[in-house]
Amino acid sequence: MSVKITSVAKQLPKYTRTTQEILPYLKVWMAGQEERFQRKVIKLFENAGVDRRYSIMDAHEVFLNTSFEEKNDIYTKEAIKLAENSLKKALTKADLKPTDIDYIITVSCTGIMIPSLDAFLINSLQMKQDIVRLPVTEMGCAAGVSGIIYAKNFLAANPNKRAAVIAVESPTATFQLEDFSMVNVVSAAIFGDGAATVILSSYDEEKGPKIIDEAMYHFYDATHMMGFKLRNTGLQMILDKSVPETIANHFPKIVHPFLERNELTIQDINHLIFHPGGKKIVQTVEDLFGVLGKNINDTKEVLKLYGNMSSATVLYVLERFMDKQLSKGERGLMLSFGPGFSAQRILLEW
């Protein structure tokens, strides 16, 4: 019995601005700061590799002195809408009804909701009353792939079942108005908001790429590299500048043994479905794989069009490959990184 990905669908928030349209708001926010700092921040935004981003709040709301409570209230209301719409789209693509889903996994790290997001979806879409729920809240950018791994393991043990993995993120809700550190600036420059749903199936007759293998890889002594610190003003980003170099140093151990255990090499992989963490990480990955004749053009395009939407972003890349209707036998390698520090990998075959 195999587990397949049968559909992927994204949902974008209603507000959107180009990077150039955000710069005037940025300049008002920086008023009173040193001129050299202001020039550096503007240059960083312009060179982040992100042309446009979407948000659950309009630009002026992001730069208002809203409290953690106010921002989280917006996150809660908008996350439910985004999740519901992306799930409906994925169900339509797969020609399914909400009651056809047996297992629901929701992932998010940019806001706090109890009850979790899945409970609201079960009610609003009248899903099965015995559906199995798993909310994942603390795996950051890796959680989209992690959610697929959890769903795959559930379905592999349960024939003729289906799972939905829904990722919803709003990094703009974590922007710290009084924080002029480069970490806050860098995260604002590369992140955007968005949602996506993946539907998986263990029905033999359903179509889609098979999950051939999956694995997690955990870095020792790297808990300081990425995450959030809970402040009175909300979730403050932790992002160590050593992340790209650390990823590069571990790449051989992340990729090659995983492929070798499936009797494959990187030359046997047709498509790289990588999470666009940011321009530096994208450049690091491109340097590593470009010499092997591989490209991550779809990863770069997603970063350019939407920014890094944390856990949802790699699912936007996956949707692009699903929409291409690839030939039978083609293989894809999914990869994302997140707090811990960890890397999550999935091997797909069409």
Characterization of the model:
The protein has 350 residues and is α/β, with parallel strands linked by helices. It has 2 domains: 4-201, Peroxisomal Thiolase, Chain A, domain 1; 210-349, Thiolase/Chalcone synthase (Peroxisomal Thiolase, Chain A, domain 1). It contains 11 helices and 13 strands. A 5-stranded mixed sheet has the order 1-7-6-4-5, sandwiched between helices. A 4-stranded mixed sheet has the order 8-13-12-11, sandwiched between helices. Strands 2-3 form a two-stranded antiparallel ribbon. β12 (331-338) and β13 (342-349) form a beta hairpin. α2 (35-46) runs parallel beside α7 and α8 (243-260) crosses α9. The longest helix has 26 residues, at 68-93. The radius of gyration is 20 Å and the shape is globular. The model has no long low-confidence stretch (mean pLDDT 93).
Share in β-strands: 15-25%
Any idea of the CATH topology of the largest domain? Peroxisomal Thiolase, Chain A, domain 1
Number of strands: 13
Name the shape in a single word: globular
Task: State the domain count.
Answer: 2
Average pLDDT, all residues? 93
Q: Quickly name the level 1 CATH class of the largest domain.
A: Alpha Beta
CATH superfamily of the largest domain: Thiolase/Chalcone synthase
What count of helical segments does DSSP give? 11
Largest sheet: 5 strands, mixed
Please provide the ordered H/E string of secondary-structure elements.
EEHHEHHEHEHEHEEEEHEHHHEE
Low-confidence stretches: none
Distance between the termini: 15 Å
Just name the CATH architecture of the largest domain: 3-Layer(aba) Sandwich
Into which percent range does the helicity of residues fall? 25-40%
Please compute the radius of gyration using only Cα atoms: 20 Å
Strand order of the largest sheet: 1-7-6-4-5
| Class from secondary-structure proportions | alpha/beta
